[in-house]
Amino acid sequence: MSQNRPAAFSSLRMGEVIREKVQDGVTGETRDMQYTQCKIVGNGSFGVVFQTKLSPSGEDAAIKRVLQDKRFKVRTKWRSWKGDC
């Protein structure tokens, strides 16, 4: 895994838009999300957190990819905040 990219995104070019369904970390609402990956800001035994920019708004957000048993789907949660990517 490179310093700035989770292994799951190793084939993506920086700045490439990622599209997926995510769950809001506060409300639990599921919605379609588009974002560009910026950098890993934390990782642990349960998953990886990385700082992103939402597309097309450019709003900063944190994406947490939760690692689960392969028999279950991977969950992604997001949270927006003010700050620089």
TrEMBL record:
GO terms for biological process: cell differentiation; signal transduction. Keywords: ATP-binding, Kinase, Nucleotide-binding, Serine/threonine-protein kinase, Transferase. GO terms for molecular function: ATP binding; protein serine/threonine kinase activity; protein serine/threonine/tyrosine kinase activity. PANTHER family: GLYCOGEN SYNTHASE KINASE-3 ALPHA (PTHR24057), PROTEIN KINASE SHAGGY-RELATED (PTHR24057:SF0). One of its GO terms (cellular component) is nucleus. This is Protein kinase gsk3. InterPro entries: GSK-3, Kinase-like_dom_sf, Protein_kinase_ATP_BS. It comes from the Eukaryota. ATP binds at residue 64. The gene is gsk3_0.
